[in-house]
Amino acid sequence: ENTTVEVPVACVADGSVTIGGKDVVMMAGPCTVETEKQLMTAAEAVRKAGAVILRGGAFKPSTSPYGFRGLGEKGLQLLAKARHEFGMAVITEVMTPSDVAMVCEYADILQIGTRNMQNYMLLDEIGRTNKPVVLKRGMSATIEEWLLAAEYVLSQGNKNVILCERGIRTFEKATRNTMDISAIPVAKTLSHLPIISDPSQGTGHRHLVGPMTLASIAAGTDALLIEVHPNPDEALKDGAQSLTIQQFNELMPQAQAVAHAI
Ligand code: PEP
């Protein structure tokens, strides 16, 4: 039987949303929490457009040690404030086993980033909680390796695992990563777990986020994880792949149309 993951969300009538249910769930927000104003503006906008889960990185796995590495616990506090204000659930990344308990206090969904897909100590620690967890596919991982990473979490007792396709490393340079859309139906065939799609990290370019969102829905994704920034050109991180609020507003009805059509 397929697994579904319930996430408590105050702003919806039922008080929760189901990942892996009949509706495609929208998770959106800034790549990284930068300031209270930036986060609140983004949260208010994506909520108004129909997103029910707010994304935002507080602990950032930056490729360069000189890049912005996030606000840490202060970022988590801002996410909690946005959750309170807009009734959204919060998804945010946790990078080390020692931070799991702390991040659990603020987040409704834990995110394991691509770079940590095979951090087995982290997988074990998260497996000992029962928080919903989004497990991103390692950028060079096969689908089998990804599913085995999911087993680490499941085998410790946490059954609330959600897979996330976020693009893989190939020889192609036109995109930051190569979005493996086929991984969505493949994972659905091989696994009982719900799967979501991250077309922002998956492409690295905001003009590709819309087409890959629609393609992911057509391929059967259960949810989307999309980066939206009030002013992407001034973002401290990943501005090139962040949608403007207007672009997100335009994308939402298109996403709903595809979801209804399939
Ligand atoms: C992110 O979503 O903030 C992120 C860093 O993603 P990934 O782990 O897919 O690179």
UniProtKB/TrEMBL annotation:
Keyword DNA damage assigned: no
Q: Which organism is it from?
A: Ktedonobacter racemifer DSM 44963
Name the record gives this protein: Phospho-2-dehydro-3-deoxyheptonate aldolase
Transmembrane regions? none
Organism phylogeny: Bacteria, Bacillati, Chloroflexota, Ktedonobacteria, Ktedonobacterales
- Which residues are in the DAHP synthetase I/KDSA domain? 16-257
Which keywords label this protein?
Transferase
Tell me the GO molecular function terms.
3-deoxy-7-phosphoheptulonate synthase activity; aldehyde-lyase activity
Q: Which GO terms describe its biological process?
A: aromatic amino acid family biosynthetic process
Q: What is its EC number?
A: 2.5.1.54
Which principal EC class is assigned to this enzyme?
transferase
